[in-house]
Amino acid sequence: MDLVGACKAFVAVSGYNSFTVGASAARIPQSVASRRVAALEKHLGARLFTRSSRTVVLTAFGREMLRPARRLVELAETMEHDAERARLRPFRLAVPAICMPRLLAGLVAEARRHDLNLDLYPAEPVERAELVRTLEVRAALVAVPADEGVWRVPLGLAGHADPGDATAIYIETLRAGRAERGTRRRRVWLQPEDDVPHVRDRVTRLRDSVGLQPAQVVVTDSLVAATAEVLGSTDVLLCSRSQADELGLYWRPVGEMPLARGYDVAAGLRDEVQQIRALPVLARCLGA
User: Where is the HTH lysR-type domain (predicted)?
Assistant: First the structure.
């Protein structure tokens, strides 16, 4: 039996001494109100009303039950109100600063269809991890090694010049030849999102193994500044294919080794981790 629904019908009918008017006030058909009150009487084991052809009057038992029934209805309404507020309360999620606004807007819209009101906080990898650790956000998309992540984002090198039919770019080709000595050496720009050990350290080890100068791999604190350098020179930017398309650059994978970002969700509650992982549009936001 729906105890709360039955109590709502009982309280409404008692307030008007009428099944017809009480049912209308409770916004249910009269037949439903009658069935619910009858079920409540059966459940409690005694009559709540004395019925006549024109009116209904509370019995002595009904008067005793009216106060607890009202309390139950009020508690149920309070719980429904609190549940609505909880569904609408913003869920603060730290996301990579490189995610495109258009895709993030799609993420927010999709989350709302799952009764999740996202409040997105773009940040760099170290800050995202710290925000979730200090509980300043409820969850964060954290950077992890690609083979440990829920999402894997392949990385390559992007430049402003069309590479033609070339399918890959080898970092060793950035090494200056004899004829180029004394000229400015080409650089690989790493953006803040890739300034993490499992990406940055692999690139620097590759740099050293093919004989590039230390200054030829640069970690920038500004994607805008790095992209400007690439657009105005033969430098290249380490990025995903989708990010290269957004920046108007030509993207190729790294020939010497596969490079990739990895992402997972960190949150205080396992249910919230699963809730965020279940949003399909997250993969598109990350470029996975």
Answer: 1-59
